[in-house]
Design a protein that fits this description.
This protein is α/β, with parallel strands linked by helices. α1 links the parallel β2 and β3.
Length: 140
């Protein structure tokens, strides 16, 4: 039995954005772990998991995200979850782990939060054609 999980990675102004589409479970979690560890090994400190297209997540997937959050923190960065909904939202709520993660409504919000947490980082470039795209708030 195989589990369908599509993963894609892009670098955006100081963060690696990993988009998940499909099912994150015992069979697919090692692929996500390996990909994200490779991003950290390649110098990425901040990781954004775009879970808007995630249809299923089991306890193994949740544990994988917790492990990656710990690793990102140990590297001086963070892990943010963008677009949490459905099954993942439910499992985070039921387990009481929703507060353990930094949750954002979408990837642009995650990138703004990453930029705000790193005073030397430039604000993320957001394409004006992207839905939900809005310029970063002017701090001063």
């Amino acid at each position: 039995m195989t589990t369908r999980l599509d993963l894609s990675v892009r670098r955006c102004e100081g963060a690696s954005v990993i988009a998940l589409a499909g099912e994150l479970d015992k069979l697919s979690s090692p692929r996500l772990r390996d990909l994200m560890v490779a991003q950290l090994d390649d110098g990425a400190r901040h990781l954004v998991l775009d879970v808007a297209r995630l249809r299923f997540c089991d306890s193994t997937g949740l544990w994988t995200m917790l492990e990656l959050q710990r690793r990102a923190g140990a590297a001086g960065g963070c892990l943010r979850l963008a677009g949490v909904h459905g099954v993942l939202e439910r499992i985070l709520t039921i387990t009481g782990l929703a507060g353990a993660f930094s949750l954002d409504p979408d990837v642009p919000a995650s990138l703004r939060a990453v930029a705000a947490s790193a005073p030397d980082a430039k604000p993320p470039a957001v394409s004006p054609s992207a839905p939900d795209a809005s310029p970063p708030a002017d701090p001063g």
